[in-house]
What does this fold into?
Amino acid sequence: MAKDLITKYGCPPSGIPLSLLKEGDDYVFSPGGVTRMVFPLLKQIVGRKFITNPYWVSLNPIGPERVVVDGITLEHVALKSERMRGYGLVKEAIWNIIHGIKHEPASVAHLLWGDEYSDYTYYNRICAERILKLDAEQDFDLFYIHDFQQLPTGFMLHSLKPKVFRWHIPFNETTIPAEWKHFLLGYLDSYETVIVSSRKYLGALRRFGYRGKAYHIYPYIDPEIYKRPSRRQVEEFCEKFCIAGSDRVVLVVARLDPTKGQDRAIRAIARVAKEIPEVKLILVGNGSFSSSREGLGLSKASRWLSQLQKLTRDLKIEDRVIFTGHVNHNELEAAYARSDLTVLPSVREGFGLVVLESWLYKKPVIVSSNAGISELVVDGKNGMVFNPDNPVELADKIVELLKNSELAAKLGANGLETLRECHIGEGVRLESELLIKIVEGKD
Amino acid sequence: MDLDITLFYRVAYFVVIMVVTALVAKFAKLLIRRLFRAGMPLVATHAQQVVVIIVWIIGALFALELLGIRLDLLLLLIALVGIAAVIAAKDTLQNIASKYFSDVYVPYKVGDLIKVKNFSGRVIEINPISTILLTENEELISIPNAVFLREIIVNISPHAWKEIIIPMVISKEVDLPEFESEVLKSCNKLKMYFDERFPPIIAIKKRTGKSVELRLTLLVKEPSKKDAIVSEINERVNEIIERMKKRE
It folds into this structure.
């Protein structure tokens, strides 16, 4: 692939400029949700000259080995299909375990002693070796490792330079099986510092037994990249997905995955529809990188979509639920603008960036109490919180908001105020201060 | 003319001896590999290196003698200097040798809580001469490595009795991720003997320009089977090292 691109674009040795690549064809820039948050942060930090010449090593089988964009070098690791399969299975299994979901294979210990686990280790070792090679050339000040699938990478980095780990998914010590404690702690302890996404997770990390330095920093979004869509854009979106002017729109933006709780939103809408017949539930999103054909190729998303479609048929609300699949950024903006409220029904959710996006459009939100962001939501002030195991509670809150436009407007406006805590500017400030402290040994 | 023929024969003998030396060195390597099949991979690698060097030195000396160079005085000088060096640095050499063997055979490592003689503390450093313990009162105790081969050592770290540490060394040319993956898969086949909460872990201990020293850590279920398991794992790891060397 890289050779083709070099032939195609005459690539310089320092890497292929991203602007020369065709999104979706030569390259998929944003294979994961973490990228959506971390890349703008990195861009801003580099733009402010707080750091120079950063390298980002990640799994990306779709694209050349080295791409440069805005002073950031993206180093891509690719795996052969058989390795990718094993890595994908273990990654998903660990993700399920951390999220407290029943998993296959039946025993966690079985997973750690399976051959697929050696593929997971292989991926991490490849990343660690690539980082060490780059370090020998660039002499980095710090290694910042993101997300659970690269947890062993820090342990493998045979270096005295500071290692920071950002845990993006939920951390609940009560859902992690006891037999995983040694395994997880062994790897976590190889980092000097761990950052989690909420105060609640920080407490859980301490109770779990992590002894290093730990902090919480709320995830953030860059409001600059969200525009107010034109009336025409909104009309086109409504036309495309058959949304009438009189419809009351409840929006869920999440990838298709059982943990995202779309089934709970559907059950709630079935109840809401009895009181508010013009209600429509718009489910935006498709599978993740793990379930995409270009990515790990797991069929989780399509299985979950079939189950959700069956549920709508069983509840006889097929005409009230719209599955948009993947939408582009302009369409997403239109979806927020057109909606009456947003629901985050996740069973487990590291944080919930979609709530921030919704607040940006002054839309009221109803948030699962299991989501990390729920600690920022004060029920009745800047949003509503519900128990994701109780669709009746969710239905009642949707009805309340759809019937009380004054309350909905108040929650939306207050939400915009809360958003300041999760503005990228705040993220840049907190992360920069922390990274300086770590590099200077003052944390 | 006679002189030319003599020189030709001498050079020919020299070449033959060097070729024979190369063959003997190769054979010695194979022999050691077989002898150490169930031994620590690190020891096997080092034994191979030492024997190969000795074979080449002997071969080179023979060859030089055939070329007419007198070696008796040279050898005597080397031997005398060697003996003097050994006597002068007896304690140091003893500690270095002890460090080498304790690295491989004595069950403690940096980070462990141990008791030796009347001292106890956490191991914070193992250097070529001594092992440094940090006591609860934040005192440093330096214990000569030779003591660890003479005295009884109690490792009081949790799970220490279960731990198996296999030191390994691979050439820098060997694909480390691939090697690690092979070793892990090989350990998986013996999973019934291990504490399942602790999957095999490979850590890098040292990197040099030519090689990478690694440490494979496993935790057994039954201490009584530790020897047999260590032997089996050593054999498997040695096989993988040889296989990977051939691929280089």
About this structure: The interface with chain A takes residues 176-178, 180-181, 184-185, 188, 191, 194, 196-199, 201, 203-204, 207 of chain B (CB under 8 Å).
